[in-house]
């Protein structure tokens, strides 16, 4: 993603301990983590963390849309 002459990349990861879920992270071209959207497996909740950064709303909207596409929940087949 490129915005305001800055390049941003995403990384997807999982965290088992101490958290139990998956995240999509947004990193800037200075290798600083700008924000994260986290999916918590036990509660089924998505949360957003900007780590105290001021983040352009366009980036927030874009990363949330990416999280909805790329992170759980996935529908589970009926047993």
Structural notes for this entry:
A hairpin with a 4-residue loop joins strand 4 and strand 5. With 79 residues, the protein is of the alpha+beta class. It is globular. 15% of the residues are buried. The chain is built from 1 helix and 5 strands. Strands 1-2-3-4-5 form a 5-stranded antiparallel sheet, covered by helices on one side.
Write the layout of secondary structure elements.
Layout: E1 2-3, E2 6-15, E3 21-28, E4 33-40, E5 45-49, H1 57-70
Antiparallel strand pairs: 1-2, 2-3, 3-4, 4-5
Number of strands: 5
Any low-confidence stretches, pLDDT <50, length ≥5? none
- The percent range for strand residues is 35-45%
Strand order of the largest sheet: 1-2-3-4-5
Tell me about the biggest sheet? 5 strands, antiparallel
Shape: globular
Gyration radius (Cα, Å) is: 14 Å
Assembly category: single chain
Q: Provide the structure class.
A: alpha+beta
End-to-end separation in angstroms reads 40 Å
What helical percentage do the residues reach? 10-25%
The helix count comes to 1
Q: How are helices and strands ordered from N to C?
A: EEEEEH
Mean pLDDT: 90
Based on the model shown, name its key terms:
79 residues; alpha+beta
Question: What's the short version?
Answer:
This protein is of the alpha+beta class and 79 residues long. The protein has 1 helix and 5 strands, in the order βββββα.
